[in-house]
Amino acid sequence: MFRRKLSALDYHNPAGFNCRDETEFRNFIVWLEDQKIRHYKIEDRGNLRNIHSEDWPKSFEKYMKDVNCPFKIQERQETVDWLLGLAVRLEYGDNADKYKDSTPDGAKNADNTAKNAEPLINLDVNNPDFKAGVMALANLLQIQRHDDYLVMLKAIRILVQERLTQDAIAKASQSKEGLPVALEKHILGFDTG
Predict the structure, then answer these.
(1) 80, exposed or middle or buried, with CB in 10 Å at 0-12, 13-18, 19+?
(2) What is the pLDDT of residues 136-176, one digit of tens each?
(3) CA 24, CA 34: separation in Å to the nearest integer?
(4) Where are the domains of the chain?
(5) Rounded-to-integer distance, Cα 123 and Cα 36, Å
(6) Pfam families, per this entry (predicted)?
C-alpha cells in the first residue's frame, strides 16, 4: 500500500513494511522523523526514539499534533500515509532541482512504437484478480463466457466503445413514446374483488 512512497524515500524495506507490527511501526516513525521530516530538533526526539517505553503512544500523539496530522493515533494506515506524503513533500522541497528534470524510468526506455502497441499485451491473464474482474464485467454486461480471458476483455472493450459513445448515450436517453393502452378494455384473467 505504501510501497511507492517508501521507495521514493529510500526506505530500506519498501515491499515488506507492515504498519500493524508495533515494533516495526515505531521504528518506522523514528526513522521518518530522523531522516525525512525532521520536525523536532535532535535533542527533542528522545521520547519518540524510546520505542520500548510505555509512554511512547503519548509521545507519538504529541508528535502527531505538532506536525498537524488530521488523523487520530488509532487510524494507523491513514496516519502512515499522511506522514509519508508529508515526507515526500519535504524531500522534494529539499531537492527540487534534482527532481525537476527527472522522468519516470519507464518513460526513458519507451519509444513511439511501444505507445501504439496493444494495451492488453502486458496483462497477467493468470492473475486470479484479473480473472475475477473480467468475469464480473462480463456478467454485468451479459457477455458470453470464453475460455480465454483476454478475448472476453476485448469483447468488453468493444461493447463499451460502441455503447458509450456520445451518440449512443444521446439515443438511449431519448424518451420513447408509444401508443397509449386502455386497461379497461383488457381482460386481466382474474377478479380483484
Answers:
(1) buried
(2) 888 888 888 888 888 888 888 888 888 878 887 777 777 66
(3) 15
(4) 1-101, 128-173
(5) 36
(6) RLL (PF10036)
